[in-house]
């Protein structure tokens, strides 16, 4: 019995090592020429940091501990983690290659309603308000990209109850909060009511 227990523990340990050794890359695809020099620089820093976080054991453990109860498509925390790092960006026939593709663009005019970014669920393109990128700490952009990437892989900002419930319990917000905590982002990250050309 003791030998079986030791063997089982070794298998679990090897499985954990194998997961930890799988490196995830985060690639940026600028879908148009909307990025100015400073926004592009912040994007580069943000994606490098996001890649570091996604590869950290702290992120892995935080996602496994999180209770996803809203808009999780009946996936477990472990399944959500695997989907995040798998590189299956919800494109048709995209293989599990552990290579995340962020398709990004920038828009200049404030859209109202506290909105500073959106991911089109058809094109999987994340558009972010330039003023949000330039007038907040770059950590805000990192958390925003994490949140929007959850949309890219198919999660919505669903509410705890229809129409009036909070949507902050949904998977994109929970993952964004985990990333913000791990990078030490305590900023409010407000939308900026300006036009930034």
Secondary-structure class: alpha/beta
Mean pLDDT: 87
Strand neighbour order, sheet with most strands: 1-2-4-3
Share of helical residues: 40-55%
Estimate the strand proportion. Answer: 5-15%
Tell me the overall shape: globular
| Strand and helix order | HEHHHEEEHHH
Uncertain stretches: 4-14
Rg calculated over all Cα atoms: 18 Å
Q: Can you characterise this structure?
A:
The structure is a single chain. By secondary structure, the protein is of the alpha/beta class. Helix content is 46%, strand content 12%. It contains 7 helices and 4 strands. A 4-stranded mixed sheet has the order 1-2-4-3. A hairpin with a 5-residue loop joins strand 3 and strand 4 (125-129). The longest helix has 20 residues, at 2-21. The chain is globular and about 40 Å long. Residues 4-14 have low confidence and may be disordered.
Itemize the secondary structure elements and their pairings.
Blueprint: H1 2-21, E1 25-30, H2 37-54, H3 57-65, H4 77-86, E2 99-107, E3 117-119, E4 125-129, H5 130-135, H6 138-152, H7 171-182
Helix pairs in contact: 2-6, 3-4, 3-7, 6-7
Key phrases:
12% strand; alpha/beta; 4 strands; 197 residues; 46% helix
Summarize the structure.
The chain is built from seven helices and four strands.
């Amino acid at each position: 019995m003791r030998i079986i227990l030791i063997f089982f523990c070794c298998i679990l340990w090897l499985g954990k090592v194998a997961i930890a050794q799988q490196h995830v890359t985060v690639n940026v695809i600028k879908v148009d020429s909307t990025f100015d020099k400073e926004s592009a620089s912040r994007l580069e820093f943000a994606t490098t940091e996001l890649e570091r976080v996604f590869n950290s054991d702290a992120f892995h453990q935080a996602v496994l501990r999180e209770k996803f109860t809203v808009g999780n498509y009946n996936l477990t925390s472990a399944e959500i983690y695997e989907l995040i790092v798998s590189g299956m960006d919800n494109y048709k026939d995209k293989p599990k290659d552990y290579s995340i593709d962020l398709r990004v663009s920038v828009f200049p005019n404030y859209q109202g309603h506290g909105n500073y970014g959106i991911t089109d669920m058809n094109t999987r393109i994340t558009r972010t308000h330039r003023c949000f990128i330039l007038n907040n700490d770059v950590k805000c952009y990192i958390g925003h990209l994490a949140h929007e990437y959850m949309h890219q892989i198919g999660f919505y900002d669903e509410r705890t109850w229809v129409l009036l419930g909070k949507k902050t319990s949904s998977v994109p917000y929970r993952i964004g909060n985990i990333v913000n905590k791990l990078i030490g982002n305590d900023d409010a990250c407000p939308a900026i009511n300006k036009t930034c050309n």
